[in-house]
From TrEMBL, chain A:
<comment type="function">
    <text>Part of the energy-coupling factor (ECF) transporter complex CbiMNOQ involved in cobalt import.</text>
</comment>
<dbReference type="InterPro" id="IPR003705">
    <property type="entry name" value="CbiN"/>
</dbReference>
<keyword id="KW-0813">Transport</keyword>
<protein>
    <recommendedName>
        <fullName>Cobalt transport protein CbiN</fullName>
    </recommendedName>
</protein>
<keyword id="KW-0169">Cobalamin biosynthesis</keyword>
<comment type="subunit">
    <text>Forms an energy-coupling factor (ECF) transporter complex composed of an ATP-binding protein (A component, CbiO), a transmembrane protein (T component, CbiQ) and 2 possible substrate-capture proteins (S components, CbiM and CbiN) of unknown stoichimetry.</text>
</comment>
<keyword id="KW-0171">Cobalt transport</keyword>
<comment type="similarity">
    <text>Belongs to the CbiN family.</text>
</comment>
<keyword id="KW-0812">Transmembrane</keyword>
<dbReference type="Pfam" id="PF02553">
    <property type="entry name" value="CbiN"/>
</dbReference>
<keyword id="KW-1003">Cell membrane</keyword>
<feature type="transmembrane region" description="Helical">
    <location>
        <begin position="62"/>
        <end position="82"/>
    </location>
</feature>
<keyword id="KW-0406">Ion transport</keyword>
<keyword id="KW-0472">Membrane</keyword>
<keyword id="KW-0170">Cobalt</keyword>
<keyword id="KW-1133">Transmembrane helix</keyword>
<comment type="pathway">
    <text>Cofactor biosynthesis; adenosylcobalamin biosynthesis.</text>
</comment>
């Protein structure tokens, strides 16, 4: 329940900006930094280019979705494993008094 | 038995190789873009970062030798950093950024271990997603994988010692570590690009409004998410937390 409330706050924190900036672009912060650099040092030219870029926004979001899915998969696996182990340990503890009752 | 173990290790390695390959996203967030640091600064930050990586590798090796069962916890810290660094979240400034996710691992394993994890995330992001860059990797790794975790770790220790509850200490550690990463990025850009009018401080003010200010709500989100994971860990894996000496003495 506590976790649920925390999660709700996280969701609210990310939805709130969308509500107060209905017309904003929500571009990347590093794109803005790039602009700022060209203002401060107009003569500066990047001296190295990225070796490979995702060919399109779709490909990029594919990679993005895969990353989130795989990462979340591992976290889910981990929680499941811990929960199972925990339960097993709990049952082992319980068995002894039961046996004594009979 | 040994064969099973080797198979398991191969599986884990393959899983993470796969995971690392798909670290996506590009034009948002903190990282300094490819080629956007003058070569002398690029080299300088590489020089600072490399020793931290060696220290990090040694610390991971030592921890895993003592307690091989920590491997899966280290995996969890890595997975958490990958998921969080993929979440592009809108912020109050009307632009987007993403959390770092390294605070969890820093609290669990100490600051040096996360330098390796953070570096790997950034390396593949720059190679496959044109996010950040190879030339700026030294600088980006220094802010996200070295400075961020160190701040998280110190804040966690300080807050626990000051008597804050476990959850509050974790929250503060993750939030301030995240924020500190972006302050460091702004600083790195400011010393490389001092403005003609106001010098380094004027540049720092500009870059930090872009990076650090955008980051505030995201840092809070990261703090809350880290507390959620920690709650799960304290519920189901209290013993590992005790072994890692994470919990404050009295425990919870």
């Amino acid at each position: 329940m506590k976790n649920f409330i925390l999660l709700l706050i996280v969701v609210m924190l990310s939805v709130f900006p969308l509500l107060i900036h209905q017309n904003a672009e929500f571009g990347g912060a590093d794109g803005q930094a790039e602009e700022e650099i060209s203002k401060i040092a107009p003569e500066y030219k990047p001296w190295f280019q990225a070796l490979w870029e995702p060919p399109s926004g779709e490909i990029e979001s594919l990679l993005f979705a895969l990353q989130a899915a795989i990462g979340a998969g591992f976290i889910g696996y981990f929680i499941g494993l811990m929960r199972g182990k925990n339960k097993q340990a709990g049952e082992k503890d319980k068995k002894v008094p039961y046996a004594a009752d009979r | 038995m040994k064969a099973v173990k080797t198979m398991k290790n191969i599986f884990i390695i393959m899983y993470f190789a796969f995971l690392f390959v798909f670290i996506p996203e590009q034009a948002f967030a903190m990282h300094i873009m490819e080629g956007f640091l003058p070569i002398e600064w690029a080299l300088f930050w590489w020089g600072v970062t490399l020793p931290s990586l060696v220290i990090g590798l040694l610390s991971i090796k030592k921890k895993l030798q003592e307690h091989p069962e920590f491997k899966i916890m280290l995996g969890l810290s890595g997975a958490f950093a990958f998921v969080l660094s993929a979440l592009k979240i809108p912020s109050v400034t009307g632009s987007c950024s993403h959390p770092t996710g390294v605070g969890l691992g820093a609290v669990l394993f100490g600051p040096t271990a996360m330098s390796v994890v953070g570096f790997i995330v950034l390396f593949f992001q720059s190679l496959l997603l044109a996010h950040g860059g190879i030339t700026t990797l030294g600088a980006n790794a220094f802010s996200m994988a070295v400075v961020g975790p160190i701040i998280s770790y110190l804040v966690y220790k300080g807050a626990s010692r000051a008597g804050f509850s476990f959850s509050i200490a974790v929250f503060l550690a993750a939030t301030l570590g995240d924020l500190g990463t972006y302050v460091m990025t702004s600083f790195q850009l400011a010393i490389a690009f001092p403005s003609d009018a106001g010098g380094m401080m004027a540049s720092f003010a500009k870059f930090s409004t872009i990076f650090a200010f955008t980051q505030i709500p995201l840092a809070i989100s990261e703090g809350l998410l880290t507390v959620i994971i920690m709650n799960v860990l304290t519920k189901y894996n209290l013993q590992a937390l005790k072994l890692l000496h994470v919990l404050p003495k009295e425990g919870r």
